[in-house]
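G domain-containing protein
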Amino acid sequence: MGPTGAGKSTFIQTMIGRETNGVGHSLESYTNQISAMRVTFSDGVSVVLVDTPGFDDTHLSDLDILKIVAKWLEDIRRRSLTLSGILYLHRISDNRMAGTPLKNLKMFKKLCGEDFFEKVILTTTMWPEVGGGVEEDIYIRREGELSRTYWAEMTNKGSFTCRFRNTQASAWEILNRVVAHESRRRLIRIQEELVDQKKSLPTTEAGQQLHGIFEALIEKQNDLLNRTKEELGRTGDPEVLMTLLSEMGELRKERDKAVKDMRQLNSSPLGKWRSVSSSIRRVRRRKT
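Structure:
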């Protein structure tokens, strides 16, 4: 798991020594569905690697991604299958943890739950070749900062870190840690919520986290719309005017899409979750 462009598909293809369905060489997401690949160790141990789309997919909304991942996890739980572990991939070349990477990490933690953290390997990618000089030193310091800050909650509860060097040997070494570390298998939180506790997706912690993301996005877009409207009233330049009108149109589209997704997330045949009508009314009052 991990954000778009973190190297999830590349990791699997590097491990097996060939391409599967292709690799996204840009930041446009390649994997927009769940895909699986079986690999076998020299001693005969068989492992299934599962590639999942990130919550910043270029073709699917965050709500679609949550539904896809949750449905797959629910299905394997109902078949009495459990996960040996999860590799969470993160680009060490990213110089800050904000926006999309931070959103992905927060959603991931809600999906997993604290009890599963000991089975998570925080895998950094995009490392230079060994002996990368100054760049390598910067990345090592960055890795330490991640462990002390954004990853601290997870590492304190058993998660550990690995570096993927974009080689087959490196990939096998990381996977071997998953197999060697395997003890009593655990369910991840969303599996317990959906199957054992019979919750609907919106009532899960991941569902509520996504709802909060939608709310924050809607409020942010409304603030930007209000500011853009103020600038619109001050400018007399026709070119600037057209640019601002175009920006307002895009902001309205993004805001309305978030409202639609939030409503869809909270629609439940059994009406088990709190209504979002109050949230919608609050943000609509500030509509332009």
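Residues 21-31, 268-278 have pLDDT under 50 and may be disordered.
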